[in-house]
Design brief:
The chain is mainly alpha-helical. It has one domain (3-115). Helices cover 87% and strands 0% of the residues. It is built from 4 helices and no strands. The protein has helices spanning 3-45, 49-77, 79-93, 101-115. α1 (3-45) runs antiparallel to α4, α2 packs antiparallel against α3 (79-93) and α2 runs parallel beside α4 (101-115).
């Protein structure tokens, strides 16, 4: 391996490491922030705590369902492509302009498992 190729490999490893840390942090923050936002959602939506808790429930259920298939998808399509797809999906699905909050949790939960592993 030439020295230029070795230097390029080291740069790519650093970039990959930063992106994986970033994606894991995004997923962990989203799970945490949903917990902290429950009282604010309850107040702004005039909902009971039981109604607002569906946001977390849908996120947890979607994450649990999608954790096992993520390994198969990574083998089938490649880890890099799956990570990119899930980062884009996570960014699109977890936007505040979505019509219902519980759907936001479920959609974010489907893309989240690939980001945390």
């Amino acid at each position: 391996m030439s020295e230029a190729a070795a230097t390029e490999t080291v740069r790519q490893r650093g970039l990959i490491t930063v992106l994986v840390i970033f994606s894991t942090t995004i997923q962990a923050l989203d799970a945490t922030i949903a917990n902290l936002a429950l009282p604010y959602m309850q107040g702004s939506l005039n909902a009971t705590i039981d109604q607002v808790a569906w946001v977390l429930t849908s996120y947890i259920i979607a994450t649990a369902i999608m954790t096992a298939p993520m390994g198969w998808l990574a083998n089938r399509f490649g880890r890099k492509q799956l990570l990119i797809l899930c980062l884009v999906g996570f960014a699109i699905f977890v936007t505040p302009k979505r019509p219902t909050v519980s759907k936001k949790g479920a959609r974010g939960g489907t893309a989240g498992p690939a980001l945390s592993g």
